[in-house]
Give the backbone structure.
Amino acid sequence: MSQSYNRGLIEDFGRWKEFSAGMWAWIFHKFTGWMLIGYLFTHIAVLSSALTGPEAYTNTIQGLESLFIIRVLEVGLLAVAVFHILNGLRLLMVDLGIGLDTQDKSFYASLVLTAIITVASVPTFMDGVTI
Amino acid sequence: MAERYSSFAPGGTTWLLQRITAAFLVVVLAFHFFLLHFVNHAADVTFMGTQARMENVGYFLTMVLFLIAGTFHGVNGVYNALVNQGLQGTQKKVVLAVLVIASVALIAQGTYVATVMAGWT
């Protein structure tokens, strides 16, 4: 049985010092979501270079991948995507009513796992590029 | 006792679709990242390699479904975030119309690009 839960107005970001773990999870999920949908539009725009021709596509992808800043941004994208996925699984559990008493712990676990996966992926993402 | 804590009004069609697309995206987004950064290095991507993947009908359909699910999930999330922020009335209708047009355009463009990648046009 679900009940309403008065967590105050999270949209009032001036209250950030009072925020609990669940409210931070809500904000991080929203922030990473905005970044991912923004990236999706950019991604399709870049891949549209295939419409110009095979060479334009290959040159665009490999040209971008030769830039150090693009590799750094890709690591950032991975971190954002991994957090959104892990916290999304946590939210699916919350919706199913599973583990509600430990929802703050699962948020911290999402952060720690995101950090571990991101750090472990850095060598692969930075392979073959220099500043 | 269970306390409901969600941005979305439960019980609606978009509420359910947001969750169904979420479950699908968890799997396919992880697959997409793994395939194009770990199995194939992103810096080594060529049109020929992309075409070899995309001309597989199963891969093509998965990618198009991935695009549709990602666009719906992302744009619906943005719309709900704005509604939570207090968007209402005419503004709400205009924002919804703009988001729907942007979504349809993105899906159409992405699907067209995928057919070109597959070499079917």
The CA atoms of residues 39 and 68 of chain A lie 18 Å apart.
